[in-house]
Amino acid sequence: MAHTLEEIAKLAGVSRSTVSRVINDHPNVRPEVRERVWQVIREVGYQPHAAARSLATNRTQVLGLIIPQAVTTLFTDPFFPHLIQGMAEACNAHRYHLMLSLFTGRTDQESLYRRVLRSGTLDGVVVASTTLDDPLIPRLLQEKLPFVSVGRHREAAVSYVDVDNVAGARQAVEHLLRQGHRRIATVTGPLAMMAGRDRLEGYRQALEARGVPVDDALIAEGDFTEEGGRMAMQRLLPHRPTAVFVASDTMAVGAMKAIKEAGLRIPEDVAVVGFDDLPVASIVEPALTTVRQPIERLGATAVEVLIGLIEQQAEAPQHIILPTQLVIRASCGALSGSRGLE
Amino acid sequence: MAHTLEEIAKLAGVSRSTVSRVINDHPNVRPEVRERVWQVIREVGYQPHAAARSLATNRTQVLGLIIPQAVTTLFTDPFFPHLIQGMAEACNAHRYHLMLSLFTGRTDQESLYRRVLRSGTLDGVVVASTTLDDPLIPRLLQEKLPFVSVGRHREAAVSYVDVDNVAGARQAVEHLLRQGHRRIATVTGPLAMMAGRDRLEGYRQALEARGVPVDDALIAEGDFTEEGGRMAMQRLLPHRPTAVFVASDTMAVGAMKAIKEAGLRIPEDVAVVGFDDLPVASIVEPALTTVRQPIERLGATAVEVLIGLIEQQAEAPQHIILPTQLVIRASCGALSGSRGLE
DNA sequence: TTGTAAGCGTTATCAT
DNA sequence: ATGATAACGCTTACAA
Q1: What is the pLDDT of residues A296-342, one digit of tens each?
Q2: Which nucleotide C1' is nearest A49 CA?
Q3: DSSP element (H, E) containing A244
Q4: Cβ under 8 Å to B: A residues 12-51
């Protein structure tokens, strides 16, 4: 069933090295010989043994996606499936494989780190949604394993791929300002994550550009979960915002619940804008105005950058920022124009 | 940086074989020697080279999750993230790794099959949501690679883990019958999938047990997508059902849209029950009554069964069915009791 | 252009 | 209880 180079060689009447050359597309093989060898390979359905090859070349053709402990609960967020889908497509296209390492609750971190990072199983790693001080990053830097972060990182040496969170948030808030809103609140993401900080920064920039003072009472930190969004919104409501920019759609769903529970209408009493454009954004009522980010492209790009690093077509650090796009639906009040504030 | 057995041996003043024995917990090593070797290993942070080990043992400690082409669009369904989470946890617990193979659109199927199944990279495979005639199954059978299907399969030789779709659907429909409904429609899953068929079978059984005739006009096939659910419901509405059992929550969201678009109320005019208990079930309005399935446990169980097969603690085929649970919310009208039909 | 042979880092068999 | 030594299946100088 499982053949070896040696057998193919015998069947084709050549030596092991010649078969190897054929398989690896080396020059210096007579065309007729090459063809004969391929013939045999196809006939018997030969497939090189990955481990043996990897032992000889010190390459595995396997990339890892590492999602740190803290976010495994968030794995239910559609962000990750999209990211993975993008990564998987890019991997397939480049003939790499994708290994998934979720640092789940009871896992012994250290042993998993070692098994994953030091056993030579991975040619490179994509890390997603780390916190700013995640110990994984220095660790990776020190292992000298090629890696790319999905999400900006302050450490200059880190290669990353990200969307333009600052600009996206700024657009969202500018849109609300254009509607005439002045008391605009925000539910931020975790400020321990760059995405959380960047979206808050975009909020600030938009207000300041318009000369609207930033009021700390109108800023509440969330944790990217629905329940977190709901609780943050409850803290904001007493300060009477007329609009709120929520840093993720999932949190926005929670925020909308809080608003409705308080007996207020969306968008008449409080306009809402989210971030992500997840499917849920068009399911909720009213449909959610939000900032769309190209998550699959983010994943594909991360893989491509990583492969570039591995195959040394590029040097670390690589920094790539993808654009976002404001998607206007009913929750911001711009469609009905009913506020008449334009 | 990357040490070898040889180096550890030298540092500990023993032979390579002794170090190997220590690492693999073989008996016949003097306790003091064992301790000395571990000491060195810890000091230098040695980690065995996976490829070398795998070449010698013919084991990789890697399991594959294969999702066939047709469903990659469905990867956005929260079903997969949950499944993966369960699988990842089980893998971590048993010191296996998880490799993800999505058969994405433009992929060359055959070459990916070969690279994945015949290169010896995987000790075993979990396949998810195959269609009944998916060529992958016979292929796997023939490769003699241990594998487990998430989802029942008619081929007797196939090991599988599944939830009790028939009983779950039956419960759902029985619940509607108990509410007094008689014109109960159903939006099925794809009938090319076992889950689609089984849930339809449960629907049938419930009706027949009550002596309610099964009316084909009240059965419409969906495809597990929201839009598919909406379209199927549109076909059903002219036949005036007073209730509908939708074979997935995602489709139920679409069905609810269709009902509302037709100017009907839920549950007063049409009661709705879904299947899955995804997060969206509690987000829609009214909240969706649905059949909860233990998706993470499904994933974990699949991995455990697979490992049993690989390590030969069990013989194929293994068949495991997990129970479901009816979750009653507002969309079926049972909470308000407003239909007064009880 | 092709073949020979020496690794790659383990495990496993056999002596000792 | 420990140490040589031969695999495992491939790549890659080096020779021819």
Answers
A1: 999 999 999 999 999 999 998 999 999 999 999 999 998 764 443 33
A2: D9
A3: strand A243-246
A4: 45, 47-51
